[in-house]
Design a protein that fits this description.
It is a single chain. This protein has about 625 residues and is of the alpha+beta class. It folds into four domains: about 150 residues, no CATH class; about 150 residues, no CATH class; about 80 residues, Carboxypeptidase-like, regulatory domain (Immunoglobulin-like, Sandwich), CATH 2.60.40; about 150 residues, no CATH class. Helix content is about 25%, strand content about 40%. It has ten helices and 37 strands. Strands 27, 28, 29, 30, 31, 32, 35, 36 and 37 form a nine-stranded mixed β-sheet that branches. A hairpin with a 6-residue loop joins strand 24 and strand 25. Helix 2 packs across helix 3 and helix 6 packs across helix 7. The longest helix has about 30 residues. The N and C termini lie far apart (about 140 Å).
């Protein structure tokens, strides 16, 4: 009996569940059963979904071509110091830099997150969906009403899911259908390409591999530092050096590859150009000398790099040989565009490569978005009245800046020689005035209280140089120095035949070099020095003599000092303004046949005078 009662109870429970299920079905059947789209309306909806997918693909393409952006960030101009704006113009397409340095020397990052890209794509689709062209259906009598769209995007490695919430009411005659939620899944590698791009960017920010390749290229293709065994000056044309460096950077950047993708270890010579990071996609690094860049070098005389020899000056004959040491400091700034390929899709973003004083920039924390640093120029609160004149006290329009603590703050431009503007507060800074055709004017000035400052600018005059040796035109190699209190200007003759000068006192020096076959044999001499004794004696300061041999290799002096002299001369502005040529007459020196003769020439040089003539 108990067993039969248990069976009856089970049947009762089953019956109750069935009844409840039937009731629930009829109550909520509107949501449980998906209505079929009427056959007459289905083509309209298929066209709408196709348009939605096309809009998604268009937005994805824009994201990939613009470094993850559809709406570009605010544009920021560069400067002559830092040539980068906030965007790289690539074939007419502006691409925001993921890393750049602004015109006022502030490092910035503009790396979008995946959430940012999803929001941008959603906004793009919301704005575009109303533009879906369904005119042919309107002509057939359809009534199509769209409500306010609200898209939600999910970016995955190999697809992008678009969920559009929007009431879409389609009707024709007796048929009517309302669709609230619309979904399309687009095949795209956007997510995977972005992840790989972010991986490369983070590695660059951590290791600065682009800057390190730039420094290698700089040392290989430009004179940076070294020593040459020669007794004549070494001269480089800075423009030629920069041209060669730009071409080398362009080619070497294109040679870079990452592990994976299209890279193969079978090619041994390519290993140097392989970046130590594994990326599944093919990666290309691009640079163009036509993009914004800047190259600076110091010390230089105009566009000429000059390094003078050591060992042939008076009193240095004991060296027994000549050598030319050189050390040049470069600032090199240029962009690199990084492209990642997957099928027909290309994701690209640019970064700025910064080399300052032959060293890579400081690496950033890859998770940072903006590098904040205190800036003197941001806090201008002291009014200063600046007036600029020429030497005749005529007003001169010039660009005014203020230098303090290594920062240069642009202030403004004098109009009619006058400017009243706010300056940042600083003690012992410099007001700097620059105007075309004038030497830079600089005045130490503390901006503690509001006051005024006057700056006199000296007009620059370009003068042609004619060099004569023993009364005849000389077209060989020579160094001509114009030394004044404000500094010196050196020209490498005959590569340079003009110089810009202002009125003032100068010491004019001319060193004339001629071809020579003077051969110095290899020599060895002993050099001794005192070094601390070992053991207890060293504790009490006792020393001992230690000697070693110094080997001097043989060398051929191909150029030797063979003429010249020096002259003190006050150059009047009337000579500079009324004439355009300086004729310098120098006398020759004996052709040296030995190192002793060469030393003798430097001694004779000290007593040689020049004849200076303006014409």
């Amino acid at each position: 009996m108990l067993e039969k009662r248990g069976q009856v109870t089970i049947f009762i429970i089953i019956a109750i569940v069935l009844v409840v299920g039937i009731v629930v079905f009829f109550i909520f059947r509107e949501g449980l059963v998906t209505k079929a789209i009427p056959a007459s309306i289905e083509p309209v909806y298929v066209s709408f979904l196709s348009c939605l997918e096309d809009n998604a693909l268009t937005g994805i393409s824009v994201l990939e071509s613009q470094g993850g952006y559809i709406s570009l960030p605010d544009f920021e101009l560069g400067s002559s110091y830092m040539p980068f704006s906030s965007q790289l113009n690539f074939l007419g397409n502006p691409i925001p830099y993921w890393y750049y340095v602004s015109g006022n020397n502030i490092p910035n990052e503009q790396v979008p997150s995946k959430k940012d890209m999803q929001n941008e794509l959603a906004d793009f689709i919301d704005n575009k969906i109303s533009e879906c062209v369904l005119n042919e259906y309107y002509e057939q009598g359809f009534v199509i009403i769209q409500d306010v769209p609200d898209s939600n995007i999910v970016i995955r490695d190999n697809e992008v899911e678009v969920n559009l919430n929007m009431n879409l009411d389609i009707s024709k005659e007796e048929d009517n259908f309302l669709i609230r939620n619309h979904k399309v899944v687009v095949k795209s590698n956007l997510g995977k390409l972005y992840n790989s791009a972010k991986k490369i960017y983070d590695y660059e920010q951590k290791s600065l591999f682009l800057e390190n390749y730039a420094i290698d290229t700089l040392r290989l293709y430009a004179p940076v530092d070294g020593v040459e065994l020669t007794c004549s000056p070494m001269v480089w044309n800075a423009e030629d050096v920069f041209d060669e460096l730009q071409e080398a950077i362009e080619m070497n950047t294109l040679s870079l590859k990452t592990k994976g993708g299209d890279y193969s270890l079978r090619s041994e010579e390519n290993k140097y150009f392989v970046v130590d990071i594994s990326i599944d996609e093919d990666v290309r690094f691009l640079n163009s000398k036509n993009w914004a860049n800047s190259f600076e070098v110091a010390p230089s005389e105009g566009n000429v790099l000059i390094s003078t020899p050591v060992g042939n000056q008076p009193g240095l004959g004991i060296l027994g040989f000549c050598y030319v040491p050189y050390h040049f400091v470069y600032n090199v700034n240029y962009p690199v565009l990084i492209q990642l390929f997957s099928g027909d899709e290309i994701f690209q973003f640019p970064v700025a490569v910064i080399v300052q004083s032959n060293q890579p920039r400081k690496s950033l924390d890859a998770t940072a978005n903006i590098i904040e640093s205190p800036q003197l120029c941001e806090y201008k609160n002291i009014f200063v009245n600046v007036r600029t004149y020429d030497s005749s006290l005529n007003p001169i329009d010039s660009d005014i800046s203020y230098e303090c603590f290594g920062e240069v703050c642009p202030i403004g431009k004098t109009i009619g020689g006058r400017l009243e503007e706010e300056f940042p507060q600083c003690v012992n800074g410099y007001i700097v005035a620059r105007a075309d055709g004038f030497e830079e004017g600089k005045k130490m000035y503390s901006t503690i209280t509001s006051t005024s400052a006057e700056i006199i600018l000296n007009r620059l005059y370009k003068m042609n140089i004619e060099l004569n040796l023993d009364g005849s035109d000389y077209l060989g190699n020579a160094l001509i120095n114009f030394i004044s209190e404000g500094g010196s200007k050196t020209i490498a003759y005959p590569q340079q035949k003009s110089v810009e000068l202002i009125e003032g006192q100068y010491e004019i020096q001319v060193y004339i070099y001629k071809d020579s076959s003077l051969r110095l044999d290899a020599t060895t001499y002993e050099q001794c020095m005192e070094i601390p004794q070992s053991g207890i004696g060293g504790v009490f300061g006792f020393t001992k003599e230690k000697c070693f041999d110094v080997d001097i290799p043989s060398q051929i002096i191909s150029n030797a000092l063979a003429g010249g002299g020096k002259e003190n001369y006050y150059i009047l502005e009337s000579e500079l303004s009324g004439l355009n040529t300086i004729e310098i007459n120098a006398e020759s020196l004996p052709t040296p046949d030995s190192i002793e003769d060469l030393q003798s020439n430097y001694l004779l040089f000290e007593d040689k005078e020049l004849d200076i003539l303006f014409k």
